[in-house]
Write the structure tokens for this entry.
Amino acid sequence: MKKQEKGYRVGEKNIDDLIEKLTGLCAYPGTDYLLREIFTTVVKLGQESGDKGDLKLINNALKELRYSFKIFSPYRNVKKVVIFGSARSKKTSSEYKMAEEFAKKITEKGYMVVTGGGPGVMEAGNKGASRGADFGLNIRLPFEQKTNPYLEEKEKVINFKYFFTRKLIFIKETDATVLFPGGFGTNDEGFEALTLIQTGKSKPRPIVLIEPKSSTYWASWKRFIARELADNGFIKKEDFYLFKIAKNADDAIKYIEDFYKIYHSIRYVSGLTVIRINRKISDKALDSLNREFKDILTGGKIILSTPMDEEVQKGEYLNLPRLIMHFNLRDYGRLCKMICAINALG
């Protein structure tokens, strides 16, 4: 790491010295090398690109991300659920009413909700949420998708130019994903959430596909996934553990709460996968996990542990016990099943 930090420079002493000085004026303790690299990248862009379109893209994306981090930062210790669904759902539709009910009940349990800020299911999510417990991440479109009238705290509304920065914040700043029936956008957001977990680019999270009892939307979707993707070998059958279909708000909320009953969070340290848990499990339970999930280990066993040295240095949840293993970094569907098995121990 130190060689990389030292080596990433513009290569012109006067500019590198100015970057060093600017870093010293701006950086929080421990973040100086990252800020230095950001400044260096900006200078390199200025030197290498005269394309205004490229620079506008980077400028807008960086500003959108900076502002989003600022808005969400005070709420990082509160679990959040992102609600996706059709912007075209009518107020009288079953999915609108169910989204409103879900948002009301989940925020009463201390969660916050994040929506796309627009009409339809998004509006229902903001309408149902407790006051001050919701965010709206609106996207600027040619036909102007206006924010819905239930986003009362305007400081929790963020307007995005780009879908990719908006989608990044949807995942980065939330702990669970709930999808109601919807169109291309809903499916795009759902498939991205699944892909990020399946490939290890996002930490495991509960993904709930929720629909009214009279609907066959997600059941039909699942049949397509099974017939065309799983049966043809494009995904593994274990990938079905990445999501759950729910027929009512209470079942969806229970699945989300159960996901974090014993499981707390995950961390990758020095080639090891560290699963933080809310309480220590018994030796008998540990033996059961080792028998059932031996296939996803590259060697050794799942063991109970205290925090790793790197976690201690950074002060990361030092009061929590850990399960440590040599996970193969491939079978994330099985890993999600293992998390459910850990939670079932409670």
Summary: The longest helix spans residues 52-72. The CA atoms of residues 131 and 152 lie 8 Å apart. DSSP finds 13 helices and eleven strands in the chain. The chain has a mean pLDDT of 95.
